[in-house]
Amino acid sequence: MHVRTEASPHSRWFSLPLGAISVTDGLWRAKQETNRKVSLRHGYRQLERAGNFNNLRLAAEEGEGDYRSPVFMDSDIYKWLEAAALDLATVRDPEVEQMVEAATELIVAAQAEDGYLDSYFQVVGPEARWSDLDHGHELYCAGHFFEAAIAMKRATGDGRLLAVAQRLADYIDSVFGPGKRDGTPGHPEIELALVELYRETGERRYLDLAQYFVDQRGSGRMRGYRHYGAEYHQDHVPVRDAGAVVGHAVRQLYLTAGVTDLYLETGEDALHEAMQRLWHDMTAHKMHITAGLGARFTGESFGDPYELPADRCYCETCAAIANIMWNWRLLLATGEGRYADLLERSLYNGFLSGVSQDGARYFYVNPLQSRGGVERPEWYGCACCPPNVMRTIALVGHYAATVGDGGVQLHQYMASTVDTRSVDGPGAVLSVRTDYPWGGEVAIEVVETGGEPWPLSLRVPQWSPTPVVKVNGVEVTDAVAEDGYLTVRGAWQSGDVVSLSLGLEPRLTAPNPRVDAIRGSVCVERGPLVYAVESIDQQDGVDLLDVSVGLDVRMASTWEGDLLGGVVAVDIPAEVTSQGDWEGNLYLPPEARTGVSGETVLRAVPYYAWANRGAGTMRVWLPSRQK
Amino acid sequence: MHVRTEASPHSRWFSLPLGAISVTDGLWRAKQETNRKVSLRHGYRQLERAGNFNNLRLAAEEGEGDYRSPVFMDSDIYKWLEAAALDLATVRDPEVEQMVEAATELIVAAQAEDGYLDSYFQVVGPEARWSDLDHGHELYCAGHFFEAAIAMKRATGDGRLLAVAQRLADYIDSVFGPGKRDGTPGHPEIELALVELYRETGERRYLDLAQYFVDQRGSGRMRGYRHYGAEYHQDHVPVRDAGAVVGHAVRQLYLTAGVTDLYLETGEDALHEAMQRLWHDMTAHKMHITAGLGARFTGESFGDPYELPADRCYCETCAAIANIMWNWRLLLATGEGRYADLLERSLYNGFLSGVSQDGARYFYVNPLQSRGGVERPEWYGCACCPPNVMRTIALVGHYAATVGDGGVQLHQYMASTVDTRSVDGPGAVLSVRTDYPWGGEVAIEVVETGGEPWPLSLRVPQWSPTPVVKVNGVEVTDAVAEDGYLTVRGAWQSGDVVSLSLGLEPRLTAPNPRVDAIRGSVCVERGPLVYAVESIDQQDGVDLLDVSVGLDVRMASTWEGDLLGGVVAVDIPAEVTSQGDWEGNLYLPPEARTGVSGETVLRAVPYYAWANRGAGTMRVWLPSRQK
Question: Is residue A98 helix, strand or coil?
C-alpha cells in the first residue's frame, strides 16, 4: 500500500518514506489509536477464529487437514500483517510486535521448497497450482503478501518476509511470462505489488512481470464467476483500449492502481490515457457522492452510467480503498489536485464508513440510505474489507504530503509532522496544526528547512472557492493557483507559519439530473464530509421517509464532543409531511395531495459515523423542495 | 393453474370449467395463436435441447447418465405440458397433440414403481430422496406435475397423467404428515396443486396434505440459499402470523395462492386475514406500477417498503404469474374488484412483457427502465418463466368471467364466448365483443339464457371513474355499484346487448412520495396498460436521459396497426434539456443549471411490447416538471 516513487521516472511528485509523516492529533490520530488498540488485536483474533492462521499452519506442516474456505484466506492475513507493520512504523506496540512475529514465523515456515506460497493449494490441491487463474486467487494472495513484506521491511527493517516474497516472486516469474505459461490473474492486485517490489528491490524482472500480467488482459478467456462475464475479471478488453469502468469494482480499481504504477515507471502514454478515460467515466457517471463505487450487488459491480441508487448501492469498502490507492498514484504522476480531492472524498466518506467507532465492526457494503436493520458485523466469511481498513488507517499519514518541483506539497490536512529530509528536496520539516475536518484552519510551521527558497503548495479542495493564505499572519495575494493548489514560494526560516483558511460552511449538493435514483434530492456536505441523517437523532415522530428540505435552507454547525467520538453535527430545518391521499397508495394521479405538514430540525452527522448507535433508519439524500 | 371452485364452500364466485370461455378475437386471441404456433413448439424444442426430456428418459430407463441441471428441470416440462393441455381445450392442433402424447408416454414410463417421480433424484441420487427439502425441489416439481395432469384430464379427458399424479400424491402422502416425516418444501407450489388435485379427485387426503405443508412453515429450519435466510424459503414465520411479503417473490406468491386455495376449502379466517395483510403490504409498499414484484436481484426478493427501483428491479415474470393466480383466488373468495383490477394490471404489464411479440423470446427479469443492452433471450438455464408464460396465455380466458350470487360476473374484458351452462347458475351463454384494451367499449350479447332474471356484474376498473352502462342502447341509471362492479339485474332474453363504456384517455400517474427511486417522475397509463418510451420511436437526437414531461401535458392516442402487432401509441409533448453546467459532473450545488431546452413529442408504446426492436433505451417513469 505504501509507495516510494522518488526513483520513478514519471512521478512528478514523490511520496515520502514510511515514518516520515506522523499523525499527531485529531480525528486520524484517534482512528489510528483505535486501529492499534482495538482493530489490530480484534483482527488477529478473528484470523485465528476463522481459520486463516490454521490454513497456513497446515501448509507449514504439509499435513492434510481441514482447510477453511474461501480460497483467498491468506490474503486477509497479509493485509492484517501489512496493517500491523505500517503501524509499527509509528508506534512499537509490544503486543502488536508479538503478533507480527508469530505471523512472520508462520509464513516463513509455510513457504514451499520451490518458493510457492498459498495455503489453499498447498493443503487442498498441491497438483492444482495455477489450474484456475480465474478464481484461484493465488496471484492475488501473492500480491498482498508482497505488500505486507515490503511494509515490514520499510517499517521495522526486518527483511525475513521480503526474502520470502522475493523467492515467491522469482518462482512466479519462472512460471509466467513470454515463452513460459500464459495467463493473468482473475483478481488484479499483484500488478501494483510487483511494481512496488521492483521499487524496493531494484529487480527489473518484477516490473516486467507486472507489465506482462497487464498486457495479457483482454483475451476474453475468463468467463466470469456465475454469469458475470469477462468484465468481472477485467478480461473483456485490452487495458490500453479500455474506455469505461465496468465489472467488479474492486478488481477494476486494483487494476487501474497497478496500471498507474506501471506508468510511473515506464511512462507509456497509452496506459496513462486509458487510465484518464476510466477516471473520467468513473467520476462523471458511476460514483456515489461518498466516492462509493459499485452500484450493484450483482457481481459487486459498476452499473450503467447514472445508475446510482442510494439504498441498494454496493459501495464496497475495498473499492473505496482501491480508489484511494489509484488516486494517490495519479496524483504522484500528474500533480493535479482533482486526484487528491477524490482521495479525500473517499477517505472521509466511502472508506471511513467501513469501520465502526469502536474499531471492532466493519461494513463490507456501504449504502447511502437505510430503511432500517443495517449494522456492521464483527467479521465476514469473505473478510477482505476489515484488514484492508486497518492498513489504510495505519497508513493515512502517507497521503498528507509529497515533495517535488523543488518544494513540498500538502494534500490531506491533518495534525502531523512531515519530515522530508530523507529524500531529495528542500530538506524541510513541517509541523501541521489543524482540527480539520472539523475546522478549516490549517497552520503549517516550518520547523527545519534547508537554505534555499522553495515552494510550498497547498491543496485547495474544489468545494472551497475562496481560500485565504497567510504567511506569519500576513495575507498572501500573489500565491500561484494551479491545478487545485495554491503555491507560496518563500525563503523559509524555522518558525515561519503558513496558514490556510478553508470555509467550512455546510452546503447543499444536488445530483446530475440524469441520475434517476436520487432525483429531486439534495445532500448536505461540510468540508470533505458528506452528512447523513439518522433516525436516532431526530425529534419524536419524525420519519425519515417523510422529510424534505428547502433549497434556501439555513443550516447550523455545532461541535459535539461527546457524540460519536466528537463530530460537528449539522442542523437542517426541514418539513415533515403526512401521507394524506397517499396513505396506503403507491400510485395515484399527480393531483394527489400529501397531508398536513409540520416543521422539524433534522440533525445530521458525518456519514462515516452512521450505524454506531443501533439499526435505525438513515439517509444521505434528502428530498428537496423548490424555494 | 386452472381452478374449479364450484364445490368450494368459501368461494363466493365460481370459476368456469376449462373450455367454457373461448377467446374469439383481439389481443388475446392473437397472443394465443402465437402461443400455439410458435411458443409451444419452440418450448418443446428447447426442452429437448436443454436436456429436460432426456432427464426423464434417463429416469425411465433407470440408467445412469448425464443428468442436465438444474434440479428442477422436470418442472419446465410440466409447465409446458400444462400449457399445451390448456391450449388443446380450445384448439386440437395435431402437432401439439403429438408432442403432448410423447411427453405423456415419457412421464408414465419415468414414474418409479412406488409412485415417486423426479428425474434428478431418480438419476443422480436415488438414495437421497427427500434429503434436501430446502433446495431439492421434489415437491415443487410434483406440484407442477399435478397441475399439468389435472389440465390434461380437464382439457382432453385423458386420465393417464392424473393416474400418475395420484400415485405420486399418494406416495408423498405416505411419506409426509403427522406421525410421518416432518417437512415442507423449500419452494412452495405443491400446496395449490394439492388443493386442485383434491378438487379434481375428491380425495380429502390431498387437501389435508396441503394444509400440513402450510402448517409446517415458520420453523426457521431452512437457512436459505446462499445467505438469503429463512425468508427466502418462506420459513421465517408461521403463515398465520405473517404480516409482510418478504423473501423470494415467486416463493412468497406461490405460497399465498396455495393458502388462499386452502381458505376457499376450509374457510379458516386466520389464513384469510393473513393473506389480506400480505396483499395490503404488497400493494401499499412493494409493487411496481406494472404489478411487477421483487425489487432485488439478490435473492430474487422483495425489498424494503418503498424500495422500487425502475432500472434494477427484478420483477420476475413468474412472480407476475403467481400474482395473477393469487388474485384470482382472492377474487373468487371475496368478490372484490380490487383483486381483478390487480390481476388485470399484472396480466397486461408485468406478465405480458415476459414474452416477445414473436413468441420465441422471454424475459425473466422485467425492468422498468433500460439504459440499453436489454433483449429477451430465447431460453434460460433456469427456464421457469417461458413455459409459465405459455400456460398463462393458454388459460387467459379463464380470468374473464365467473358465476355466483345467482348471476354472471365479467372481470377481464376480451372478445370471447362465455358459456356458463355446465355449472349451477343462470345457464347463460354470452358473447363479448370488444377491442379492449385498445378501445373502451364492451358489448355483451346474451346468446342464450335460462328463464329467470339474473344479475350481470361488470367490473369497473379503478382507473375508470365514470363508466356508462347501457342495455339495448338505453343508459342504465340504477346499476348497483359495489366493490368495483356495476351490477345490472334483468330478465334477459336472447339478443339483449349490455354495453359498457370505459374512458380510455391516456393519464399520468405519480408515485407515492416515499418512493425514492422514481421521485419527481410520472408514468403514462391508458386503460389497463402502462406505457413505455423506447429510444427507437423518438425524434433524432433525443436521449431518454434528458426528457421531462409537464404535469399539464396533453397527450394523444393513435391506433398503429402495423406497430408491434397493432397497438395504440401515445404521443407525449415533452422537453429535452442539455446538460449545461452538469456536463461531466455528477454532483454540483443546487444552483447549477441545465443547458438549452427544446421540445419534442415522445412516442410511447405499451410496456409489454418493449424490447421487440433491438436493445435501445427505455423508460416507464419520466421526470416531471411542475406546471
Answer: helix
